[in-house]
Amino acid sequence: MILNSHSFSFPLTTLLPSFKLRKPLLIHCTQQQQQPLSNMDSTSSTIDDEIAVDLTPVLKLYKSGRVQRLAGTEVLPPSLDPTTNVESKDVIISKEHDISARLFIPKTNYPPTQKLPLLVYIHGGAFCIETPFSPNYHNYLNSVTSLANVIGVSVHYRRAPEHPIPTAHEDSWLALKWVASHVGGNGSDEWLNQYADFEKVFLGGDSAGANIAHYLGIRVGKEKLDGVNLEGIFYVHPYFWGEDRIGSESNQAEYVGKVHNLWRFACPTTSGSDDPLINPAKDPNLGSLGCKRVLVCVAEQDLLKDRGWYYKELLEKNGWDGVVEVIETEDENHVFHMFKPTCEKAKILLNQVVSFIKGA
Q1: 227: which residues sit within 8 A by CB, 6+ positions away?
Q2: What's the short name of a Pfam family annotated to this entry (predicted)?
Q3: 207 in catalytic set
Q4: pTM, full prediction
Q5: pLDDT-derived band of residue 317, with 50, 70 and 90 as boundaries?
Q6: Which of 50, 170, 267, 295 could be a cystine partner for 165, CB 3.0 to 4.6 Å?
Q7: Are the C-beta atoms of 228 and 198 separated by less than 8 Å?
Q8: Catalytic residue status for 6
């Protein structure tokens, strides 16, 4: 979870003490802006000001259904970035469902003399905030695209609470199928038609986006995408959870219930924290992950760290026949690389991701 507008972020545990969830959550969410008081009667204005769920500093949900996002609202337009020499553009995948993507292509050697690997990236933000157009995500994709020499597709999915989980997962799957529609060179986007190597496709994501990337990997393994070879997936500080405590989670009991509630907020219909969408240990299809290489990046101070290590153990126990590696960054917290992108450890993490892509 990232506060792009101030080039600032916070660990997951900073958010949790302010989380308040009044059950049951039976509120119709809207994206409307608050109306002027002169156009509202006193009753409606009171309802509009009453908070149902307080997720400060991420968002507030009011009893009227209005959603006020407090973070991840700043956007950058697509551009030719002078630092990385990467060009970006926005494309519509589904106008009906408001699914789109920002595409990135390196221009240092353009047109490419050979087809480029393809990275489909899913942004984080607790399933509730951020977009591919957020400054930190835009800049991150510029860097990865340039250093790894790939075409980047950063997916814009619909977010909770207006569109509860599994909407984000289903939107991302539709986006991945849209990417695959270019395999024969007859898709709607010329960059993908002409320059994408569909024999070298990667998935990646951070936090909630890593959760979605895992879901996509399982679905590719089960359903296949004709003409697409998924080489590997990388997860940066993946948002996985579960009912039973593992590792250092037992020493952070004050946060456990709040993490459960955070998940329920984004997915009100969930069966709980052992839902396969949040707990890979409960997914009978885990061994079907549709790639041969996985990189899991965790941070030492992150509440979710042990879930990343556990994911490696789960893959090895569930019949998946690929290679999984875990990299841990010392003395850092959740998605530190997004709010401190120029620090030395963020640069190291970036290079580890790039090496993973280039190593295929």
Answers
A1: 180, 183, 184, 198
A2: Abhydrolase_3
A3: yes
A4: 0.90
A5: very high
A6: 267
A7: yes
A8: no
* Residue 12: predicted pLDDT: 57
Average pLDDT for 47-61 = 88
Q: Who's near 122: CB < 8 A, 6+ residues apart?
A: 155, 157, 172, 203, 204, 205, 209, 210, 212, 213, 216
Residue 171 confidence (pLDDT): 98
Cis peptide before 11 (omega within 30 of 0): no
Residue 242: alpha-carbon gap to chain centroid: 19
Tokens of 299: 């941070």
Is residue 302 part of the annotated active site? The answer reads yes
Stretch 56-72: mean pLDDT: 93
What is the reported pLDDT for 108? 92
Do the beta carbons of residue 15 and residue 265 sit within 8 Å?
Answer: no
Q: How far is the CA of 277 from the CAs of 167, 177, 302, in angstroms?
A: 12, 20, 20
Residue of 207, 237, 260, 273 with catalytic role: 207
**What domains can you pick out in the chain, each with its CATH number?**
80-358 (3.40.50.1820)
Work out the angle at residue 53's Cα, subtended by the Cα atoms of residues 334 and 275, and round it to the nearest 5 degrees.
60
Is the pLDDT at 1 greater than 60? The verdict is no
Neighbours of 337 (CB within 10 A): 25
Catalytic residue among 182, 237, 334, 337: 334
